[in-house]
Amino acid sequence: MIIKHINIKNYLSYYDDNFFEISEGLTLLLGDNGDGKTTFFDAVKWLLDTTTRIPIPELASAKAKSELAVGESMTVSVSMTFEHMGEKIVEKSFDVKRVSDTDFRGSNFSFRGYVESGTERISRSGEEIVNGCFDAFMQRFSMFKGESQLNVLNDATAFTQLINTYSDLKEFEPLVELTDSFAQKSYNVLEREKKNDSKTAAKATEISAKLSGVRTRIVNIKNDIKTYSDSQKRYGQRLEILEKNQEASEKYNEIEERIKNKNNTLSTLKANRSSVNLNIALLDKQWILCAFPDILHEFQVKCSKFSKLKRQIEKDWNIENGVKKGKQEALKEVQAMIGEELRWDIPDKQTMEEMIAAEKCWVCGHPAPKGSDEYNYMVRRLEEYNKRLNPVKEPEVEEKCFVSEQIDELQTLALRLGGEPAVEVAKKALDIQERLELEAFLDGKIRELKTEIEEMNKEKARILLNSDGLTEDMLLKNMSDYMGLTKLKSEAESKLESAKRQLDEALEEEDILKREMEQLPGTGMVNVYSKVNMCFEKIFKAFKGAKEANLTQFLCNLETTANKYLVRLNVDDYHGVIKLKRSINRNGETTATIDLYSTNGDKISHKSGSQEVTMYMSVLFAISELTTIAKSENYPLIFDAPASTFGDAKAGAFYNVVDGLDKQCIIVTKDFIDENHHIQMDSLNSLTCKVYQIRKAEGYTEDLSTVRTVITAIK
Fold first, then answer.
1. d(CA 344, CA 384)
2. Is the pTM for the entire model greater than 0.70?
3. 698 CB-near residues (< 8 Å, 6+ apart)
4. What digits encode the pLDDT tens for the residues 176-188?
5. Torsions phi, psi for 714 (to 5 deg)
6. What string of DSSP letters covers 145-197?
């Protein structure tokens, strides 16, 4: 099988049609993190997966979906053209329709293919073509996502399929099973006859009962072993996935924790920022008095002026009043000296009243008409007479310049406000200034924190974008899941080892009991059955030995071929020697361990990343070669980032070797891209292979609908 073309349309970041021409040798797809390398691998994997037959709208390009109006549809498809006993095409596709602003629906799933027959192209189902040319079993040995999947022989099922398909082992399997059945049946007959023999019946019955109990225990232990083995395998597979994304998960969790801390700090700052309501503080904290110092100063100045003016007025008034009093006192003294002109009681009251009534002064004889001065004088004399007869004591009122004390009160107020209250009021302005400065500082810190949180959220989005389909929950749970799965895997391993020891003990006990049964003395037919059983056991062991020898030879050939590739992949570098060791678990499954050894036979326990990768890839190349020899069929090898642990020099040598192999390889990698995201053309020019660059189109943001993978053929 030789791949010729691959076209990806609207699959995740591959917007519209993206056409790849694949060479018969090495084809490199170069891209930085998040550029769509793994998406290419996943697209091909999805195409070749015959179990998936439903449309999945989540696989559709976010950019293509964003361009759909409600009611419009578009097509997602991946197709491959390849040579396999004639040209064949296989295509998987489905439609995606926007049913609302946020909802999309998949429909019209199709998995079809075409086969060339002469000049005619015949339609076939996609499943039929893939299963006939590149089935799931071969994909297991041909497609590898990351370094963690390279050790394919560690999978018991895969290894058993491999040796059954590409060795003569499967020819021996029915013979081994048949002779094992004969041996078991013959032993059962022998056991029955010994239980029926009067000489051996009692002992044979006792041994048979013990064998029955041991065999029941063996069955139970084997069931436990299968359970623990399945658990160990399941946990191990999940751990491999987690380990692959461990770095991304650790970084994501670190950023998430930092964001959490930043948000807590932000909440605290916001709380401090809003702890004082400026409007309320105007009255509750008397901040409204912040302008009072200037007003108070003006008030004090005015009060001082008023007080000074009052004192001057009082001084002038006192001088003037003193002169007036002096004159009155002098007048009284003169009056005292000269006496009164006319006594107050002359004339008497009655006479005065008669004179007023007669409007005539009887003292001087002059008329005094009403309203005249003379008349008014007599009225005043009468009033004075009455006052003297009925005196009313009036309070003496001290005559003052200012009746009110308001000016003094204002001055006192000015003095009182100018003391500690003035200091306290002055502090209001300082409090306000300090609060405003604090709020300005807090506003600055809040802006800084928001910017930092925004940048960290962008970093999270970039990690998600580069995590090849992992969700946020998966990355966040990765750490806790990893610890939990490690513990569960360890527990399963411990239980498995314990069960294996128990099984060994039970099998050994079974063998002892069977020998005891066989060694019981017998006569006649018992001896005949014993010889028949012995013969069948020898035949069974012979076929089992032949099966083991065939398997050993297959592993030897695989090991030799793998070491040939190991030398080629490690030119001018230490590489060691690959050794394949086979083991059979208690479920009857065969596995193989792959390890490096030095030439003196010591196991290399601490292999470098590049040593481990070249070791596994050497085995994969060897498997590919042996399968080609066995079936006269060639299969492509597709790798996603197999050499990520290599240094630049090691990577260059590695790709030069792969470029020279007579083997179709497709490798997606970020090798040959420097830290400034530039293609290292000098290194690429030494290769003869076809090279594509995969990159995100300019203008993308954290919005996935802006992300589009662009491919460019650079060699």
1. 8
2. no
3. none
4. 677 777 667 766 7
5. -105, -10
6. ESGGG--GGGSHHHHHHHHHHHSSHHHHHHHHHHHHHHHHHHHHHHHHHHHHS
